[in-house]
Amino acid sequence: MAVESTILNIEPMDLSNTCLEKQSLKGKVALITGGSSNIGLGYARAIAWAGGNVVISDINEEAGIEAERVINAENGDGTALFVKCDVTKQDDVKSLSQKAFAKFEKVDILIHNAMNMRLNGSLLGSDVDDLDQSYAISARGMMLLAKEFVPLMVERKYGVVAYSATQFHYCPPMIGGTIYTAGKSAAASITMSLANEVKDTGVHVFCMTPAGVLRIDESRVPPPRNPDAPKFDRAAFSMPGFNGFIPPEAGGAAMVYCILNAGSIHGSGIIINDAFDAMNYPFEKPETAVRPKPNRLSDMELTMVLCTMGPGFERS
Questions:
Q1: 76: phi > 0 → left, psi -120 to 50 → alpha, else beta; which?
Q2: Is residue 177 part of a domain?
Q3: pTM score, whole prediction
Q4: pLDDT digits over 263-276, tens only?
């Protein structure tokens, strides 16, 4: 029987139509920040479906407790643990680590996904405090989490670290405004640098861009902090291969696939449709799906990629 929730905006979890094995992550423990809603919850539920245990970190206690209940109801008691945590605070991150290890004795997989979607204003219309908070959640959070969990992964010679990065600069009709994307790009830089720091240690690091993953309950969406925040045009944003947005559960399936193949994408960024293509995901509308050939960038190209986004100079 499908598990329902009056708090979380979810659909039944069923990944039997994917290439994923039901127990492919059995014995693994994953920690997901921002894990009580949308794509973060999709990651947590998919990892649990694949046999892993999950630690859900979030500042929303009500949603986090409900996410723990739902995942345990779907997969068995003791599968999930919710820990309230502000990833910008070092003491909170240390407490998160202590509670995760007390429950599961280890963390094999770290996914940093937390972000405040209200930090979504324009450069010219936002306060500097908004930019500071965006950096704090994304970049400072990534650094605190990595310093807390990655050394033990290196010691054990096994681990997977992923940053869930929607986009890196504002480009209509995408949902992230300038302030939001500034924090995302900073954390992505930290993640890619970390990949080089831990190269050949058994720890694999990558970014996954879940563009188009969304399930909106518009009655619960808070108003933007800034009145000039970019307006999201739902009609203009329909992901190729899907009837509108990509369901968070499908986004979770893509993350599980990436975790299982982390060694082959270490030091890379992958867009969700590339993951779907690699796993031969059954798109709802296969005839419109984008099927690009995978293109891995070199380390030198990665250092410059954020400087070369956009059309550049017009050719004469």
A1: left
A2: yes
A3: 0.89
A4: 999 998 888 888 88
